[in-house]
Amino acid sequence: MADLNIVLVEPEIPQNTGNVARTCAVTGAALHLVKPMGFEIDDRKLKRAGLDYWDKLDITYYDSLSDFLKVNGDEHLFFFSTKAVKTHFSVVYPKRCFIVFGKETAGLPAELIRQNPSRSVRIPMRDELRCLNLSNSVAIAAYEVLRQHGCPGLH
């Protein structure tokens, strides 16, 4: 099982998920997709964004966020949200962890962030702007985790 696990909760845009899949493939991270999704997994836009990396992925699917949490709730989970107080730079990520992102239009459920303040983090950005693109946020977070561990297996 991969040390770095990237979780997309109810992703809506196939191109974003394809880009995240590509990031997972090149970093060795496992991808966890939580349904419902705003597209079918065989969507050509999804595969086009992920290019020819689909056979290099370790993907797990879940029927709901509660199903994901039942399976992985005891793991080191970090919830990314613009509503979190602390930044993702302030966390020392354990070697094996899950970085969790919500859907493009709404993010993660507010209750999840409220219930997990010590594990909720944000990527710094200007106040007057809403948010970064999902696939960019995932890449920023993934490489911070990898940087902290010396980018194992990457050259």
Which characteristics define this entry?
single chain, 155 residues, alpha/beta, Alpha/beta knot, seven-stranded parallel β-sheet, 7 strands, 32% helix, globular
What can you see in these coordinates?
The chain contains five helices and seven strands, in the order E-H-E-H-E-H-E-E-E-H-E-H. The chain is an alpha/beta fold. The protein has one domain: SPOUT methyltransferase, trefoil knot domain (Alpha/beta knot). Helix 1 runs parallel beside helix 5. The two termini are 20 Å apart. The mean pLDDT is 91.
Topology, element by element:
Elements: E1 4-9, H1 14-27, E2 30-34, H2 44-50, E3 59-62, H3 65-72, E4 77-80, E5 86-87, E6 97-101, H4 110-115, E7 120-122, H5 134-148
Mean pLDDT: 91
Number of beta strands: 7
CATH superfamily: SPOUT methyltransferase, trefoil knot domain
Order of helices and strands: EHEHEHEEEHEH
Number of discrete domains: 1
**End-to-end span in angstroms?**
20 Å
CATH class: Alpha Beta
Extract low-pLDDT stretches.
none
Q: Which term fits the overall shape?
A: globular
Helix fraction, binned, reads 25-40%
The number of helical runs is 5
The largest sheet, given as strand count, sense and whether it forms a barrel, is: 7 strands, parallel
Structural class: alpha/beta
Walk across the major sheet and give the strand order: 3-2-1-6-4-7-5
The name of the CATH topology is Alpha/beta knot
The CATH architecture term is 3-Layer(aba) Sandwich
The percent range for strand residues is: 15-25%
What's the alpha carbon Rg, rounded to whole Å? 14 Å
